[in-house]
Protein backbone atom coordinates (compact mmCIF):
# COMPACT_ATOMS: atom_id res chain seq x y z
CA UNK A 1 0.00 0.00 0.00
CA UNK A 2 1.24 3.45 -0.91
CA UNK A 3 1.93 5.36 2.38
CA UNK A 4 0.38 8.52 0.91
CA UNK A 5 -2.96 6.72 0.54
CA UNK A 6 -3.11 5.59 4.17
CA UNK A 7 -5.14 8.56 5.52
CA UNK A 8 -7.66 7.87 2.75
CA UNK A 9 -7.90 4.23 3.79
CA UNK A 10 -8.22 5.12 7.49
CA UNK A 11 -10.98 7.59 6.66
CA UNK A 12 -12.82 4.95 4.68
CA UNK A 13 -12.36 2.21 7.31
CA UNK A 14 -9.99 0.06 5.24
CA UNK A 15 -7.29 0.47 7.90
CA UNK A 16 -8.30 -0.07 11.52
CA UNK A 17 -6.83 2.24 14.16
CA UNK A 18 -6.05 0.27 17.30
CA UNK A 19 -4.94 1.09 20.87
CA UNK A 20 -1.35 0.85 22.10
CA UNK A 21 0.51 -2.38 21.52
CA UNK A 22 1.46 -4.26 24.67
CA UNK A 23 3.74 -6.65 22.75
CA UNK A 24 4.38 -7.93 19.25
CA UNK A 25 3.72 -11.60 18.55
CA UNK A 26 5.11 -13.75 15.71
CA UNK A 27 1.90 -13.17 13.73
CA UNK A 28 0.69 -9.75 14.97
CA UNK A 29 0.21 -7.99 18.27
CA UNK A 30 -1.36 -8.04 21.73
CA UNK A 31 -2.96 -4.73 22.67
CA UNK A 32 -3.20 -2.99 26.04
CA UNK A 33 -6.98 -3.41 25.99
CA UNK A 34 -6.57 -7.21 26.01
CA UNK A 35 -7.38 -7.78 22.35
CA UNK A 36 -5.01 -9.54 19.99
CA UNK A 37 -4.90 -9.80 16.21
CA UNK A 38 -2.80 -11.07 13.33
CA UNK A 39 -1.32 -8.52 10.93
CA UNK A 40 0.99 -8.38 7.97
CA UNK A 41 1.57 -4.63 8.47
CA UNK A 42 1.56 -2.53 11.63
CA UNK A 43 1.72 1.23 11.27
CA UNK A 44 2.15 2.98 14.58
CA UNK A 45 0.98 6.58 14.70
CA UNK A 46 0.90 8.70 17.82
CA UNK A 47 -1.82 11.02 16.55
CA UNK A 48 -1.88 14.76 17.04
CA UNK A 49 -3.56 16.97 19.58
CA UNK A 50 -4.16 20.62 18.88
CA UNK A 51 -3.06 22.67 21.84
CA UNK A 52 -2.64 26.43 22.07
CA UNK A 53 -1.80 27.09 25.74
CA UNK A 54 -1.09 30.77 25.12
CA UNK A 55 -4.66 31.74 24.16
CA UNK A 56 -8.03 31.04 25.75
CA UNK A 57 -10.09 28.52 23.78
CA UNK A 58 -13.10 30.83 23.48
CA UNK A 59 -11.06 33.32 21.43
CA UNK A 60 -10.55 30.58 18.85
CA UNK A 61 -14.20 29.47 18.75
CA UNK A 62 -13.10 26.06 20.03
CA UNK A 63 -15.71 23.34 19.52
CA UNK A 64 -15.14 19.66 20.10
CA UNK A 65 -11.65 18.75 18.91
CA UNK A 66 -10.54 21.96 17.20
CA UNK A 67 -11.17 25.64 16.69
CA UNK A 68 -13.92 26.40 14.18
CA UNK A 69 -12.37 29.04 11.98
CA UNK A 70 -13.32 30.29 8.55
CA UNK A 71 -10.93 28.61 6.10
CA UNK A 72 -9.13 27.22 9.17
CA UNK A 73 -7.66 30.71 9.60
CA UNK A 74 -10.12 33.42 10.64
CA UNK A 75 -11.72 33.64 14.08
CA UNK A 76 -15.39 34.62 14.09
CA UNK A 77 -14.82 36.35 17.43
CA UNK A 78 -11.92 38.65 16.57
CA UNK A 79 -11.29 40.32 13.21
CA UNK A 80 -7.58 40.62 13.96
CA UNK A 81 -6.87 37.05 15.13
CA UNK A 82 -5.51 34.61 12.56
CA UNK A 83 -4.34 31.01 12.95
CA UNK A 84 -1.76 29.91 10.44
CA UNK A 85 -0.98 26.30 9.63
CA UNK A 86 -3.95 24.63 11.35
CA UNK A 87 -4.83 22.75 8.20
CA UNK A 88 -4.05 19.30 6.91
CA UNK A 89 -4.61 17.67 3.55
CA UNK A 90 -2.68 15.14 1.55
CA UNK A 91 -0.19 17.09 -0.54
CA UNK A 92 -1.14 20.55 0.77
CA UNK A 93 2.29 21.19 2.30
CA UNK A 94 3.93 24.59 2.17
CA UNK A 95 1.81 25.70 -0.80
CA UNK A 96 -1.28 25.70 1.40
CA UNK A 97 0.45 27.60 4.17
CA UNK A 98 1.82 30.14 1.69
CA UNK A 99 -1.68 30.65 0.26
CA UNK A 100 -2.96 31.14 3.82
CA UNK A 101 -0.30 33.79 4.46
CA UNK A 102 -1.14 35.58 1.20
CA UNK A 103 -4.81 35.69 2.17
CA UNK A 104 -4.09 36.95 5.69
CA UNK A 105 -1.85 39.68 4.23
CA UNK A 106 -4.67 40.70 1.88
CA UNK A 107 -7.13 40.86 4.79
CA UNK A 108 -4.77 43.00 6.87
CA UNK A 109 -4.23 45.34 3.90
CA UNK A 110 -8.01 45.58 3.43
CA UNK A 111 -8.47 46.34 7.13
CA UNK A 112 -6.03 49.23 6.75
CA UNK A 113 -7.25 50.57 3.41
CA UNK A 114 -10.99 49.87 3.45
CA UNK A 115 -12.42 49.15 6.90
CA UNK A 116 -16.01 48.85 5.65
CA UNK A 117 -15.03 46.18 3.09
CA UNK A 118 -12.98 44.45 5.78
CA UNK A 119 -16.09 44.43 7.98
CA UNK A 120 -18.02 42.76 5.15
CA UNK A 121 -15.35 40.08 5.01
CA UNK A 122 -15.53 39.63 8.80
CA UNK A 123 -19.32 39.29 8.55
CA UNK A 124 -18.70 36.42 6.13
CA UNK A 125 -16.19 34.90 8.57
CA UNK A 126 -18.81 34.97 11.30
CA UNK A 127 -21.44 33.37 9.08
CA UNK A 128 -19.23 30.59 7.73
CA UNK A 129 -16.74 29.79 10.52
CA UNK A 130 -18.24 26.34 11.05
CA UNK A 131 -18.15 25.48 7.35
CA UNK A 132 -15.68 22.71 6.60
CA UNK A 133 -14.02 22.54 3.20
CA UNK A 134 -14.09 18.79 2.81
CA UNK A 135 -14.74 18.49 -0.93
CA UNK A 136 -17.41 15.91 -0.20
CA UNK A 137 -15.06 13.68 1.79
CA UNK A 138 -16.66 12.10 4.82
CA UNK A 139 -13.84 12.51 7.34
CA UNK A 140 -14.13 10.49 10.52
CA UNK A 141 -15.10 12.46 13.61
CA UNK A 142 -11.66 12.05 15.17
CA UNK A 143 -9.48 14.58 16.91
CA UNK A 144 -6.71 14.06 14.36
CA UNK A 145 -9.05 14.78 11.46
CA UNK A 146 -10.83 17.77 12.99
CA UNK A 147 -8.95 20.26 10.79
CA UNK A 148 -8.55 18.16 7.61
CA UNK A 149 -9.60 19.75 4.34
CA UNK A 150 -9.82 18.59 0.75
CA UNK A 151 -6.72 20.01 -0.94
CA UNK A 152 -8.16 21.15 -4.28
CA UNK A 153 -11.33 22.56 -2.71
CA UNK A 154 -9.33 24.35 -0.03
CA UNK A 155 -6.85 25.93 -2.44
CA UNK A 156 -9.75 27.02 -4.66
CA UNK A 157 -11.52 28.61 -1.67
CA UNK A 158 -8.36 30.50 -0.68
CA UNK A 159 -7.88 31.74 -4.25
CA UNK A 160 -11.53 32.78 -4.50
CA UNK A 161 -11.26 34.81 -1.30
CA UNK A 162 -8.03 36.47 -2.45
CA UNK A 163 -9.70 37.44 -5.74
CA UNK A 164 -12.71 38.83 -3.89
CA UNK A 165 -10.47 40.85 -1.58
CA UNK A 166 -8.46 42.15 -4.55
CA UNK A 167 -11.72 43.21 -6.18
CA UNK A 168 -12.74 45.04 -3.00
CA UNK A 169 -9.36 46.78 -2.94
CA UNK A 170 -9.68 47.71 -6.65
CA UNK A 171 -13.16 49.15 -6.09
CA UNK A 172 -11.75 51.33 -3.34
CA UNK A 173 -8.91 52.64 -5.53
CA UNK A 174 -11.28 53.35 -8.47
CA UNK A 175 -13.42 55.78 -6.45
Q: Topology of this protein?
A:
Elements: H1 6-11, E1 21-25, E2 28-31, E3 36-38, E4 62-63, E5 66-67, H2 93-113, H3 115-128, H4 151-173
Protein name: Monooxygenase
Pfam families: FMO-like (PF00743)
Family: Belongs to the FMO family.
List keywords for this structure.
175 residues; alpha+beta; 3-stranded antiparallel beta sheet; 4 helices; 5 strands; 9% strand; FMO-like; FAD; FAD/NAD-bd_sf
Describe what you observe in this structure.
Keywords: FAD, Flavoprotein, Oxidoreductase. Belongs to the FMO family. This is Monooxygenase. With 175 residues, the chain is of the alpha+beta class. It has 2 domains: 3-38, no CATH class; 57-173, no CATH class. Helices cover 37% and strands 9% of the residues. The strands form 2 sheets. Strands 1-2-3 form a 3-stranded antiparallel β-sheet, with no helix packed on it. A two-stranded antiparallel sheet has the order 4-5. Strand 2 (28-31) and strand 3 form a beta hairpin. The radius of gyration is 20 Å and the shape is elongated. The N and C termini lie far apart (58 Å). The model has no long low-confidence stretch (mean pLDDT 87).
